[in-house]
Amino acid sequence: MEYEPVIGLEIHVQLSTKSKMFCGCAADYQSAEPNTHVCPVCMALPGTLPVVNRQAVEDAMMIGLALNCQVASATKFDRKNYPYPDLMKGYQISQFDSPICITGWLDLQDENGEPVRVRINRVHMEEDVARLIHIAGPDGGPGHTLMDVNRAGTPLMEVVSEPDIRSAAQAEQYIETVQSIIRYLGVGTANMEEGSFRCDANVSVRPRGESKLGSKVEVKNMNRVKAVTRAIDYEVARQIKVIRDGGRIVQETRGWDDGQGATVPQRSKEEAHDYRYFPEPDIPPLKITSDMVQQVRSKLPELPAAKKARFQYQYGLSEYDSALLTSSRAMSDYFEAVGAAASGTSLDDRRAFAKETSNWLTGEMSRLLNEAQQDISSVRVKPAQMASLVETFRRRDLNNATAKAVFQEMYRTGQDPEVIIDAKGLTKVADTNSLGLVVEQVVSANKVAVADYVAGKETALRFLMGQVMKASRGQADPEITMRLLRERLEVLKASR
């Protein structure tokens, strides 16, 4: 019997607000000394009262709108009770039956390029917990655990999908799409390695064609996108084997062990965990008016999918190039800033320039950024400088190798391309008299290749062309050089 995976994802997004969810402490816990961004509220001291962070509420609405959700006209907070040592109050302020956003969707493509719609069940607000640091004991003996309360109370949004994902590849695409949207909105860094973006996967399998859901397993502890896909693939294969061997899938929580490449049992969920939700008595329900929703909607930027489609239509770029350029808001903004600095006026000129710019940004620029582990927003090369280099290269005033060398120097120093070209004497040689002398020298020095050309071997022409480029240090104009070289060889051929 053939089985299909059924996958739903729960994504936690830390918001980049200045203060925490329910108090005025700074939310930037990454760069602070442990236990310095704390107050009586986030320490859960008796008699303290939480106050809702308005910016976090607006950010949650923005996320929901970007995911095509409905924003609730009324929402409330609830107490979710469970006894974890990193939960300062002994409960978490979250949302249970009245989340701020519901019933959205996100469009993806399956492995065959066919459209796939993943429904969004809800987006709800809550607070993060403190951070535990486990210290191993000497020689494998008992260790100890430290707790940093700086993270406690940081605003957290949970995006819960319906079980509409059918493969690890679709899960990867979904995660990366949500990441991209969060970054475009500017509401969070969405960095899994730093813990500001976390994902849990609910995985089950069922006979293909069956509509009833199987028993699900929740997989946790995945801190990279590839870890999520590996965990899903492992868990799907494990569940199928259990069923085929006559076993039963136990509803449980399993952790992903990246070293072993396997999921391991953590706790059973055979019976539903009773979190004893009840309305948070210290926070009154929030009323959200249509004017508030419209005000947040007006702040939405052009999102990745819309920008990708526009790049294809406006600039004539391929779907592949458009996807690369819009993978980050900083890259897409840089691309358009380069275009704005260009001098082309006709549609054909603008599109040709856009294609050449795309080649440079997705090629050399991306290569150097990856090597330096740098984001394009901090690169030294200004868009106007990039536009100047692209225009110079399009005129073929520089050949490919020389243009790359100029760009590398621009990337390193931030200098204008014209300054680098003049300082290094890299201007293309197009003077026929000067090139004629180089051609004559090469022809005289390579008699075997000349004889091969005269005998009808066209490949000898490419060799001689390479010798001219070498002699001119790559500065010879290729078109003029090729014409002069062919003319000289044809004269020799006719004289034999």
**What general form does the structure show?**
elongated
Q: Hey, roughly how much beta strand do the residues contain? A: 15-25%
| Number of spatially distinct domains | 3
Q: What is the number of strand segments?
A: 16
Low-confidence segments? none
Number of helices: 15
Proportion of helical residues: 40-55%
Strand sequence of the main sheet, in spatial order?
2-6-7-10-1-11-12-13-14
Which structural class matches the secondary elements?
A: alpha+beta
Mean pLDDT reading: 90
Integer-rounded radius of gyration: 30 Å
Biggest sheet details: 9 strands, mixed
Distance between the termini: 77 Å
How would you describe the overall organization of this protein?
By secondary structure, the chain is α+β, with helices and mostly antiparallel strands. It has three domains: 3-295, no CATH class; 304-424, no CATH class; 432-495, Arc Repressor Mutant, subunit A (Orthogonal Bundle). It has 15 helices and 16 strands. It has helices at 54-66, 168-185, 225-244, 290-297, 304-315, 319-325, 329-340, 347-372, 383-394, 400-413, 417-424, 432-445, 447-454, 459-471, 478-495; strands at residues 3-14, 70-71, 74-75, 78-81, 91-94, 101-109, 115-127, 131-135, 144-148, 155-161, 197-207, 217-220, 252-257, 262-268, 278-279, 286-287. The strands form four sheets. The protein has a nine-stranded mixed sheet. It is elongated, with a radius of gyration of 30 Å.
